[in-house]
Each structure stands twice: as C-alpha cells, then as structure tokens.
Amino acid sequence: MSYSVGQVAGFAGFAGVTVRTLHHYDEIGLLVPGGRSHAGHRRYSDADLDRLQRILFYRELGFPLDEVAVLLDDPDADPRAYLRRRHALLTARIEKLQRMAEAVEHAMEARRMGINLTPKERFEVFGDKDPEQYAEEAEARWGGTEAYAESQRRAARYTKEDWKRLQAEVDDWSERYAVLVDAGAPPAGEPAMDLAEEHRRHIARWYYACPHDMHRCLGEMYVADERFKAFYDSMRPGLAEHLKEAILANAVRHTA
Fold it and tell me: Which residues contact 30 (CB under 8 A, 6 or more apart)?
C-alpha cells in the first residue's frame, strides 16, 4: 500500500500536518517518502506513516525538528536520555511559571475590556465575537495587577476607529502567520520570530508593557489553556504550538 501526500495530510490533519508540512519534512530529510509515482509525485508507505507517527510524538513533546531527526536516525541516540532532559526542562519551566503566576496578568486577551462602544459600534468592530467573553474570570485572576489596570485605562480611551485599527492589525497578522505555518516555516526561523516580535509589540502598543519574559509566559499559556489554543488553532491547526515556539525563540534572540 502507498499513499499520496494529500492522503497522508488527511490522515494526520488532526495533528496540524498539511501538504506543505510534508513537503518541508521531505526537503529537510526528516520524512522522505519511500516511493514516487510515474509522474514523480510522492508516495508514502506504511513504514513512512510509522515514522510520521514517531515524528508527531516527539513534536508533541516539544522537541525541535533537528533533535527529532537525531532521535530517529542516530543509532547512538538514547531516547530515554533525551526524554529525561526534556522532562527536566519542562519541570524547570513549570516552576518558573508558578513563580511568575502573579505576572500572568499579561494574559489580558481574556480580560475585562473597558470598551466604551454602542452595541452597533461593537458589531461593526467585532462582528459576532464577544470581546468580553472571559471578562469576569480575567478580573478575578488579574484584577489587582498593574497590567490589568493599564489595559483597562487604555481600552477606556479607545474610540470605534481605534478598535477598528486594532482589529485590522490582528486580522492582518493572523493571515500572515497562517500563511507562514502553511508554508512549513520553522518556529525558530527569522520570518516566524519576526511575526512573534510583531505580536509582542502589538500587545505593548495597545494594552500593556510586555517584555520578552512576559511574552514567553503568554506563549506557554496559548498552548496550556484550551480556549487560547482553540483560538489560535482556528487560524490554522497547530498554529498555537508553532507560535509558542516562535515566541520562545524570539525571546532568546532578544535576550541572549
């Protein structure tokens, strides 16, 4: 049995695998299809699908693609050692996030926004989306923080035209990031890191000061919180995880 690239993307679409993803994996040698059709099109065998499943397993654990390749192809690689190292990194990250729990007020995309618009103006700006969907929860979690207060102060001053400009920036960024994910661009590549930096500056420009450490915490939350993950993945499957990794890489780039 062999499968076309479209069929494989259909099988693995739930994990954010697209045709472009498979093309990218082929180009970097991570998943080279075992065969070709008479027309030169990629054909994947059952063994290729088994390898893809292992790639997705390690990717889900947060391993970068170059390390996944080592785990799969280097006979001297010890998966247990890699997993122990990944576990240690994740544990340290969790501890840091717990210490910074009070700083997670910069997760204000789910906060109560002091939007002074008429119902008609709200519809013109946000359509059928409710910008205050998680307002009560956000106020309960971060209501006493300076970032929350600053976001409230700014939002209260914005006019309908301000909100339209803000929303236009969000829509434009979302479209460009979705295209980047479709193209299989790596999160640690310059295009992805540049868009992550643009994301951080958007928050700082419109809501509250967002240094790179804060932005890293936001990136973690975009994956850990199912509602945020669903929001970003609705743009493209796998986008939340991709953005998180791009945010982390961008933070390293600017703080190294």
Answer: 55, 65, 68, 69, 72
User: Which of 34, 117, 80 shows the shortest CA–CA distance to 71?
Assistant: 80
Position 63: which residue type? F
Sign of CA dihedral 209, 198, 13, 64: negative
Please report, for residues 12, 158, 202, the alpha-carbon distance to residue 123 in angstroms, rounded to integers and kept in the order given: 37, 16, 22
45 secondary structure, DSSP code: E
Residue pair 193/212 in contact (Cβ under 8 Å)? The answer is no
Sheet holding 42-45, edge to edge: 2-4, 42-45, 35-36
3-class DSSP assignment, residue 121: helix
Q: Which residue do the tokens 């920036």 mark?
A: 169
Which two structure tokens, joined as six digits, stand for 55?
């790639």
Q: CB of 182 within 8 A of CB of 20?
A: yes
**Selection from 140, 146, 255, 149 nearest residue 197 by Cα:** 255
Q: DSSP E strands: which ranges in the chain?
A: 2-4, 35-36, 42-45
- Which pTM value belongs to this model? 0.50
Q: What pLDDT, in 10s, does the model give residues 183-238?
A: 999 999 999 999 999 999 999 998 888 899 989 988 998 999 888 899 899 999 99
Helices H, strands E: what count in the chain? Answer: 13, 3
- Is it the case that residue 103 has pLDDT exceeding 50? no
Query: In whole angstroms, what is the distance from residue 240 CA to residue 109 CA?
Result: 14
Confidence check: pLDDT of 107 > 50: no
Question: Which amino acid, 247?
Answer: I
Cα pseudo-dihedral 11, 15, 21, 22, rounded to 10: -30
Lowest mean pLDDT, pick from 16-20, 28-32, 107-111: 107-111
Cα end-to-end distance, the chain, whole Å: 49
